[in-house]
Amino acid sequence: MRSLVQEVTDRHGGSTFAERVQGDGGCARFASAGAAMSAAVDIQRRCRRVSARPLSTARLRIVIAASDMLDDEYGAPVGFALVVCARLEALAKGRDTNDPVILCSDVVRSLAHGWDRTKTRHLGQFHLKGLGEPTDVYEIDWEVSPLAEALGVPVELQHVEADFVGRRAELEELSAAWRRLPRTGAELVVIEGGAGLGKTRLCAQV
Fold first, then answer.
1. N or C: the chain end with fewer CB closer than 10 Å?
2. 120 pairs with which residues across the strands?
3. What is the largest CA-CA distance in the chain?
4. What is the pLDDT along the chain (206 residues), one digit of tens a residue?
């Protein structure tokens, strides 16, 4: 599991570092809030595929916070974001469910707005230990439709909030093929066109 997390972190331009964490925990930092959110979503989806294997019990709680970060005299990152992450991790651990989750602070959500299309759900304001003011906490939606996952739709296109315009006939044809699957067992639809015409976006809309 650590190798999976490391691989995804590297792909999104992040870097892992040692920090005082319990059990199998770990820390990583990214150049932007959007990159951190995309990496977290990617990790959870990759872990879900691993969890589907026999005898696997992989369940991850991922939390994201943002602040200025500096390196101390030993080269270790320090910053307020680490404190917020510790409090969010405790909040995630105290949930009634053991399902995989991604939580982030309101600062992360604001910074990523316009750069990351990931959907979030407001969980409310929480008085986190050691923080003077209540913190707005959001849960990041990392689930993906079975069709998008089967088609290998990129993460950035799996949750698009912009309106889908046109392509009604093509969209209906794809949707009809998807609906027929329980009866036919297999369907093959070929979408042809030049680069940038919206083939992947069309698949993501189904």
1. N
2. 140
3. 65
4. 778 888 989 989 998 886 655 556 788 989 999 899 989 988 888 887 776 555 455 678 899 999 988 888 877 788 889 999 989 988 888 776 667 889 999 999 999 876 666 788 899 999 888 888 899 999 988 876 555 555 555 555 555 555 666 777 888 888 888 788 778 877 777 777 777 777 777 776 66
Cα dihedral 108, 137, 113, 39 in deg (nearest 10): 60
Place of tokens 């316009």: 114
Please state, in angstroms and rounded to a whole number, the distance separating the CA atoms of residues 197 and 189: 17
Rounded CA-CA distance 81/72 in Å is 15
Rounded CA gap, 153 and 71, in Å? 38
Q: What is the DSSP string of the chain?
A: -HHHHHHHHHHTT-EEE-----TT--EEE-SSHHHHHHHHHHHHHHHHHHHTSTT-----EEEE-----EE-TTS-EE-HHHHHHHHHHHHHHTSS--S-EEEEEHHHHHHHTTT----EEEEEEE--TT-SS-EEEEEE-----HHHHHHT--HHHHS--SPP-S-HHHHHHHHHHHHHHHHHS---------TTSSHHHHHHH-
Please state the length of the chain: 206
